Amino acid sequence: MTTSVRNRNLKKSYAKKKKSLVTVDDVFLMTELFNRKAWNQYVGYESVFDAYVATLGRMTDPEKVLFIDLTEHFLWIMDYTVDIVTQLNRILNQFNNYQDYYVIRCIEKAEQRKSKSSGVVLYEIKNPVVQRQLFKPVHILNSTSDLKKLKNISNSLFILVDDFVGTGQTADDCMRDLIQIQPTIAGKMVVMCIKTISSGLLF
Q1: What is the mean pLDDT of residues 66-90?
Q2: What topology does CATH give the domain 81-196?
Q3: What pTM, to 2 d.p., does this model score?
């Protein structure tokens, strides 16, 4: 099936759905956008495409324009592994005078029990494939409870991990929380993230 035929079929499929305000042009624009950003090469992208189109159907025309513009600037990362290894090794090289390295989620104390994207990064770091590519071994701290159990951390670096840092406020709050739990950790923390925005606040 050629791309043009598939696009026509997609248009017909969405146009026939009842209570849908999605136009044929909406589906065409979203199809072109997914193709342009190469999202159509990702496994399972169809369900994401369906969700995007369904969201368009609940929007006014001005909202659709904004939504499509924001999607144009959206970064979809399917595999964190390479970025995680690169960022961790950069930190391990730059701060190579420490004896032990601990990795913990960059998350506020009040959010500890919630499922957050920082947990995905921590889970990836546990992967033996990632571990074998690191210049130095790292210890995983699953929660602040693990931090409380540590005794001698005078020569330890703590790496706070997250997938994205925006304003930096969450990272700042997390550092303050960790210092309250373990005061000697002050001055021995760095933040590692997969992506950030250049206009984010410095903390």
Answers
A1: 81
A2: Rossmann fold (3.40.50)
A3: 0.62
